[in-house]
Amino acid sequence: MVATTDTVARNEWVPCGWLGQIAIGTNLDTMIFGQPIRVARIAQDDYRVVELSDAGTEGRSLPVQTRYNCIFTTLGEPTRALPEISEFDEPDRRIVGCGSVGVSTCPYRLIENFLDLAHLCFIHKDILGDPEKSEVLAYKTEHRKDADEIWAVDCSFYQPAASKASTSGQMTKYIYRVMSPFSVMLYKTVNSDPSRNDAICVFIQPIGETQCLAYMPMALVDDVSTDGDIIEFQQSIFLQDRVILENQRPALLPLDPTYELPTRADASSIAYRRWLKAMNIQFGILEKQAA
């Protein structure tokens, strides 16, 4: 696998491990954008990330940030900061790292799947959706230029079991937030307190153009479920999605609007693809076919 030369992708922060995943004094060898890297835990809260040669020799040191239970790094010079997600700083919330799942597809397919309300009643039947209530109500998308993020607001969908803490079906309100080409989150109605939202994130480690690890940290209002129950619930949902994602063709994302025809329910995906096209990202993108 050859490391990408795409500057747009290289300049983004991406996860490369969980806090506490490795013991002090040990290493984790992994890869981002086709570039082998080593994550070393120097002390309790001190991590070092370096590039590796094909022979395993350590090379250039890379920037490191630790947020949201994850270790982040970049191959380039980021033009955007890591997103601020205030819910992770609220003292009464459950902060749960729901593991990382490997998926053989491009990172943008993962983002779009997360944004897709229409699939909930079919892929996550009787949990996040009901086939008898499959209509996706109109919602709004926004490009918030101050932060350069894509938001989808006023989303609502009937869910039989919206979370592990749910005891009955409900109309769940969603706000989606795409924070970078490789990170997305949603704010979701709390079953026990409609005045607050759970914060559910997916940060993607692009190993290669069609190989990813998806990290799922969550900041929840839930004093009932155990961490194990929450992790099991979230992993089961994601594994249902993985079957679909790994069978999508092409695995790379086409930005030519005539290649895959959208519907009204795909408004957030349309906004996301336009945003990717405007930033001229090349990594993981299907080149337009000549006529």
Automatic annotation (TrEMBL):
Keyword field: Dioxygenase, Oxidoreductase
Biological source species: Pseudaminobacter salicylatoxidans
Alphabetical list of InterPro entries matching this protein: Cholesterol_7-desaturase, VanA_C_cat
One GO MF term: dioxygenase activity
Top-level taxon of origin: Bacteria
Pfam families, sorted: VanA_C
SUPFAM superfamilies found in the cross-reference section: Bet v1-like
Vanillate O-demethylase oxygenase-like C-terminal catalytic domain location: 106-279
Top-level taxonomy: Bacteria, Pseudomonadati, Pseudomonadota, Alphaproteobacteria, Hyphomicrobiales
Name of the protein described by the UniProt record: Phenylpropionate dioxygenase-like ring-hydroxylating dioxygenase large terminal subunit
